[in-house]
Amino acid sequence: MSVGLGAVATTFAAGVMSIRRGLAKPIGSLTQMGSIRLGKRTDKRTPMIKDFIGLAGLDDLVFGAWDIFHDNAYEAALKAGVLRKEDLEPVRGEMESLKPWPAVFEQKIREEAQRRKHQEGRDEI
């Protein structure tokens, strides 16, 4: 869960989504590309950090966000202007499904109100 869907959060999410699809490499990610030396240098034992520690894989990550704005991650990323639109397009659907919690919560409230209104209307007939 990120606090806000600004430039940093949307860039992170879009990056992970792109890596999952094989569209990008995790350049700069210590946990994904780094290794650790075990023993002496001459032992030549340098497993990848992600394999040595047993971290969750990128496919296991689930994104959520809280924000006062209702923009989904795709809209927020476009407004932030950190990533180019052509870099966001391949992950657009997944980014659009990432909505901030207040907006999701308000949508659920509206849906429940509509359901109750419809149910009350049926009960009166």
Give a written overview of the molecule.
- The protein is mostly helical.
- Helices cover 52% and strands 3% of the residues.
- It is built from 7 helices and 2 strands, in the order E-H-H-H-E-H-H-H-H.
- The chain has a two-stranded parallel sheet.
- Helix 1 (7-20) packs across helix 4.
- The longest helix has 24 residues, at 101-124.
- The chain is elongated and about 80 Å long.
List keywords for this structure.
125 residues; 52% helix; mainly alpha; 3% strand
Share in β-strands? under 5%
Class inferred from helices and paired strands: mainly alpha
Low-confidence stretches: none
Mean pLDDT: 90
Order of helices and strands: EHHHEHHHH
Number of strands: 2
Major sheet attributes: 2 strands, parallel
- CA radius of gyration: 21 Å
Task: Briefly characterize the structure.
This protein is mainly alpha-helical and 125 residues long.
Task: Chart the SSEs and their pairings.
Blueprint: E1 2-3, H1 7-20, H2 30-33, H3 49-53, E2 65-66, H4 73-80, H5 85-88, H6 92-97, H7 101-124
Parallel strand pairs: 1-2
